[in-house]
Design a protein that fits this description.
The chain is of the alpha+beta class. It has one domain. Helix content is 28%, strand content 24%. It contains two helices and seven strands, in the order αββββββαβ. The model has no long low-confidence stretch (mean pLDDT 79).
Length: 123
């Protein structure tokens, strides 16, 4: 048996503050993790512009995303052509999402990135 939608909403609202603190909990060192990575969006069989072969062997896109907190909430992924290298324009995406992350937490950010995002500009 499941609760009604009104009862469920009341229970969720009463616990929202504790869940938010869990989602945006910091590392033991005090830093809030902000993780950069890419992921594959499969668009096989479509005729969309800039669809290309991904590193997973399907036709699609490889958006760049930044995830915040221990539960990795995604902050506005950037849809990019697949033929674009992972590190290309990453600094522009970070310029857009890092101010958003600083509005969500007062803790200092620890940006961690997948090795594909390695570039001299980011260093």
């Amino acid at each position: 048996m499941a609760p009604s939608s009104l009862t469920l909403r009341q229970h969720m609202d009463s616990h929202a503050a504790s869940w938010l603190s869990l989602a945006f909990s910091a590392q033991p060192c005090g830093y809030m993790p902000a993780n950069g990575d890419t992921f594959v969006v499969n668009n096989a069989g479509t005729k969309k512009e800039t669809v290309g072969r991904t590193y997973q062997g399907v036709d699609g896109y490889t958006p760049s995303a930044t995830y915040l907190g221990s539960l990795r909430y995604c902050l506005v992924p950037a849809l990019r052509p697949n033929v674009q290298h992972s590190a290309l324009e990453t600094e522009l995406n970070l310029g857009r999402v890092l101010p958003m992350a600083t509005r969500l937490t007062k803790r200092p950010l620890l940006f961690r990135a997948a090795s594909g995002l390695c570039s001299l500009k980011l260093m």
